[in-house]
Amino acid sequence: MNLDRGKGWLCIVGLGPGDPKWVTPEVTATLEAATDIVGYIPYVARIAPRTGLNLHASDNRVEMDRARAALQMASRGKQVVIVSSGDPGVFAMAAAVFEALEGRPDWQALDIRVLPGITAMLAAAAKAGAPLGHDFCAINLSDNLKPVALIEARVRAAAEADFAMAFYNPRSTRRPHTFGRVLDLLRTICTADRLMTFARAVGTPEENVLTVSLAQATPEMADMRTVVIVGNSATRRVGRFVYTPRSAL
Description:
Elements: E1 9-14, H1 25-33, E2 36-40, H2 41-44, E3 54-58, H3 63-75, E4 79-84, H4 93-101, H5 105-108, E5 111-115, H6 120-128, E6 129-130, E7 136-140, H7 148-160, E8 164-168, H8 178-187, E9 195-200, E10 208-213, E11 226-230, E12 236-238, E13 241-243
Parallel strand pairs: 1-4, 1-5, 2-3, 2-4, 6-13, 7-8
Antiparallel strand pairs: 8-11, 9-10, 9-11, 12-13
């Protein structure tokens, strides 16, 4: 990617789920060209300090403020990178930046690019085998930006349509009960032997991947570092792997 060091630009990049080997060469080169790194505290902490690089870390509840600050810096001639974990377009900062652009034609004229990364859902699926081998959907179980009723409606619709599902942000200390409600909902639609994979901290030294049946699943198996993959009705085990066949159901 050709980046002009003489003018301001903004790149929103994905750092992958944790393993440095999963950061793309394009993202690495862009980080090396940046004057400023913007992002959520633990993601910015993954960037090695160097002379001439300014790190701007902030809390995870100020996404719009973060996006506007990055755009403002780029408009002043800075070379700015917003870092997300996984892929920046999946429950991450790319959407926040484009929302901040609304009503700002001056910012819309900036050199803005989105660089993909390996999202946690795909890393988790690869560790398990191929549970997303057929049609699937991803649902964020956090109610920070949408009501619980909408989360449950989407889970119900996906389960009734027999999608495999990947759940992001399933359970936190602030909302310990939401995932339990989702499990109860799934048990009204799916059979007890439906396979579920709990993939925690994939790509880090704390990685743990566990596959159980829906009947065996408990809320305590998940936290904010866990991606939960629910198979569809055809998902099955083969040896130590879990996969969903590609043939029509």
